[in-house]
Every structure is written in structure tokens, then in C-alpha cells.
Amino acid sequence: VGRYGSGTIFFSGCNLGCVFCQNFTISQLGEGEEISVADLARIMLRLERMGCHNVNLVTPTHQAPMILEALALARDQGLEIPLVWNCGGYESVEALKLLEGVVDIYMPDFKYGDNRVAARLSSAPDYFERACEALREMHRQVGDLVVRNGLAVRGLLVRHLVLPNDLAGTERVLRFIRDEISPNTYVNLMAQYYPTHRAWEYPEIARRITSEEYKRALALAQSLGLRRAGPH
User: Fold this and answer.
1) CA-to-CA distance for 88 and 150, rounded, in angstroms?
2) Model pTM?
3) What is the C-alpha to C-alpha distance for residues 176 and 117, in angstroms, rounded to an integer?
4) What band does 2 get if pLDDT is binned at 50, 70 and 90?
5) Where are the domains of the chain?
6) Whole-Å CA distances, 4 to 37, 38, 155, 167, 178
7) Is residue 203 within 8 Å of 153, Cβ to Cβ?
């Protein structure tokens, strides 16, 4: 994120229903305020004036039409910094095609390798297939992550949150990335899971991950030859 950070804009709501969401008041309880398209454009421009290195749109998928309209206004008024699409990976290829040439950096989660787990924990029974299709399209548009002077400027950055009891299906996720996307994919293997929101209702995720569980995920990425996978 560089010296001056990422200009993050959170959007209320989400197209997933994760029972362990750390931002559930925003994603599921509707916290936030309604603003106009013009206001959103002004926020983007203000973030650039503050010195932010990019505009980072968090859970933007369900607001895509309005975002595109606001971005067009902001670009017309001189916005130049990269646009980051920070999403849950549960995207349609049709929607992503509308973003081609607009998004500079795609930063999706790849949450699950098992649809049964995705259905139970995120209300997304076809998550794996949708995420695979989405990552292919994202990579087609922007390629592997390009970093200049310590700053990401373009490309795909995939996040994977390691869950207790290997419920995230880490091996299947990483094998897909290596085989179907690129062994040079930048993968952020995240260890910060903790039970929040409704996670306590699900015994299999009602604890933090252990250091051994995380070490296994790192070792797996290394053994698969994912050169840019790690804790970043």
C-alpha cells in the first residue's frame, strides 16, 4: 500500500453471507449511509488529493453500475490513480467483462475449495465454480501482479483465508491457481481468522487456526511451486 496507503471505500451489503464475516455490520446489517453517484466521484478524487496510491473498492460487486458511473465522472475530472476491485470472488464473468479496461488491480478472495462448505458457511452452493471462472477472467484482463517501487500497479492478487480444520480446502484452491491461472500468481495466505459474527454457532470454526495449520498452508504453497504465495 506504499507510504500513503490505499484509499479504501466500503460498500454496504455483500453478495455472500459468510457466518464469520469480520465486517458483518457493513456487509450484512446495512451499516453505512446512502450517497449519490456524484458524491462517490468526489470521494475518489479526494482520496487521490490526500495522496492515496489507489482507490480500493471493498465489496463493490452489487453496486457495479453506480460505481462505473461515478468512476467515469472522476476520470473526467482528472482521477489517475489505479482502481482496485476488492471482492469475495463470487462474481459473474458477464459482470467482470463490463470492468475490462476499467479495473487495474483485481483483489478477490478465493474462499473455498468445497461447495458444501461454501453453502454452509457463506450461502454460496456453487462458489468454487463461480470463483474459478471469475479468476480466469480477471487474469485474462490484467495478468499477473506488477509491482513497481514497492507499489502494485496492475494485475491479479488473490487472497485465501486459512480456516480451522482445513475447511477452506486450501490444497484444491492453490492447485487451481497454479494449474489454471499462473504459478506466478500473487497469493496472500491469510492467518487472521477468528470466530466472530455467527461463527460460534458452528463448532468446526469456533476457534482460531493453529500455527501448525498455517504452516501447513505455507508449506503446501511452496511445494506446489507458487513462487509468490505467502503471508505478505
Assistant:
1) 25
2) 0.95
3) 17
4) low
5) 7-156+191-207
6) 25, 25, 20, 36, 32
7) no
